[in-house]
Amino acid sequence: MFFRPLAADHKEVTVMKKAYEKYIPFVPLKMEHRSWPDKRITKAPIWCSVDLRDGNQALVDPMNLQEKLEYFHTLVDIGVKEIEIGFPSASETEYEICRELIEGGHIPDDVTIQVLVQARPHLIQKTFEAIRGAKHVILHFYNSTSTLQRKVVFHMDMDGITKIATDAAKLIYELSQPVIAEGMDLRYEYSPESFMGTEMDYAVEICQAVIEAIHATPEKKIILNLPTTVENCMPNYFADELEYFISKLPSRDSAIISLHPHNDRGCGVATAEMGLLAGAERIEATLFGNGERTGNVDMVTLAMNMYTQGVDPELDFSDINKIKAMYERCTKMKVGERQPYAGELVFTAFSGSHQDAINKGTAYMEESGSEYWEIPYLPIDPADVGRQYEPIIRINSQSGKGGAAYVMHHNFGFDLPKAMHPEFGHIVQVETDRVGTELKPERIYELFKENYIEATAPYQLVRHSFAEFTDEEGHSHVTFAGTIRCEGSTFQVNGSGNGPIDAFFNAIHGQKMDRFTFVDYKEHAISDGSDSMAVAYIQLRDQEGKDHFGVGISHNINLAPLKGILSAINRAVTGN
Ligand code: KIV
Ligand code: ZN
Q: Would you call 188 helix, strand, or coil by DSSP?
C-alpha cells in the first residue's frame, strides 16, 4: 500500500499497489559495441566444484566427514582439478574435514583444494592454520560489494568496502609468504560478492585495488571470481556487464576471470555459457546444481552441453547413474526426473511421432554408418552417460503404431514385420485406453503373447511329422502328416509341397480352416537365455481381403511357421 495525496482537499487516501510494482527492474548497461554474441565456446573452462562448500551449506543436513570424503573422491574421479572443500574458519567440523583431507592423504597431486574465507583478519589467520601441509591451495576471500548490501547490510560507502577487501588482500599476502617459502603452491581468489548488483565501474575499481594489494602479476595471476550471488537479470545483460568489466580492468593480464552463477531466474547455465563467450575462463559449479536457494549452476548440464556441441568438457560423466546415486546418498537431495542428462525420464519418448522419428533415426544411423549422432529427439546418445538405450520408448495412449513394435524389438528381440505394426499397435492402444496409464514393456510383451503366441484355439496341432527329400534337380519335396484338434475332436491332415509351409497349407486344404491365402512370412532366431528359438510371423488373407497375422515360436524352425499359421487362423476365426 502507498499513500497518494489528493490535490483538492489535501486528504491522503490509500491506494492498493499491484504486488509486482514493488520490484525494481534491472537496468541493463548501455553498450555501444559487444563482441560476445559472435563468439563460440571451443574449449572447456577451468572447472571448480563448490559442492562441498556452497552446495553443502545449502543442505538441510550438511554432509558429515564420510559423506564429504566420498563426494570429494567422486569429484576427483570426474576429473575436477579445483575443489572448494569448505569454509574451515567457520566451524570446528569444517576445520576438521579440511585437516582430514590434507592429513589423510586424500588429495591427489594434480588437485588443488580451495578454501573460502570472509575478508576478516581472525578468520584469515584460522584459514592459514587449516591449510598447513597441503600442496596446492587456492585461498578464496570475499566481501559484498553490491549497492544493496552496502546500503542495507554494511552501511558503508565504496571506499569503506574497498578497504575491507584490500586490508584482507594485504594480510593474506603477508601470511602467505612463509607458507610459499616452505613450498606450498598457494594461489589467491577474490570474489566481489553480489557482483551482479555492483556498479560495474566500482567492480572494476575494487578488483583492481585487490590485484595491486595482493601483488598479482601475469605470472602469478589472481582468480577474480564474479558471482551472480542472486541471479537478477537475463544472461545477455550479464554477458554485457562481463564484457564491459573485462575491457575496463587495467590489470586484466594478471587475472583469471571466473564465474560463480546462481540460478534464481533459472538461467544459471545460460549465464555461464554467455559469460564464457564474454571472456570468462573458469566456472564454479556444483553437480546437479545443488546450492543456496535455487542452486548453483549445474556442472553436469554445462559440461554435457559443451559435449553435445562437439567440445570436450574434460569431465567424465560416462556413468551418470553412479554419480547421481552418490549425490543422492550424500546430500539426501533428489535429482529431478527431467533434470538434463541425468533425470529418470530424459531418454524416454512418450509421443508416438517422437518414437517413430527415433526409430527412423536409429535405422538411419545403422544403414548409413554415419559417424555423427543423427537421431531426432535424442540430443545425446544415452550410452555416452551410461544410460540404457532400451527404455527410451514407453507406451501410452499417445504412442504411434511403431512404438509397440519398437519395444518388442529393442526390449525382447521380436522383429515384427512392418505390415504387422498397425495391428499390434492397435491392440496396445486399446489396452492403454482401457487402463488409462502408460504401459510398461513387460505388459506389451504379455499382450503380444496373449494375442499371438497363445492363440491356440480352436485349432491346435497335436502331433506331426515331416519327410523331406531333394530330387536330382535339387528341388526339395516335403510331406507333412499331422493331427489337429478342434473343440474336442481330432482329425488327420496330410499334404506335400516344396517346403514345410507349402506342405502344411496343402495338408489343410479342404478343411474348414481352408479359407485363407498365404501372403507373407518372416522368421528369425530369438534367444531365450541360453536357449535359441525360432519365431515366425505369418500373414494370411481371408476371402474378404482382410489380413490376419499369427506368430509361432518353437525350437524347431519347421514347426514355428506352422504354429504361426494356426495362430493366424485361430485369431481370424475367433475374431481377434
Ligand atoms: O554466491 C556467492 O557470492 C558466493 C561467494 C562466497 C563466492 O558463494
Ligand atoms: Zn555462491
A: strand
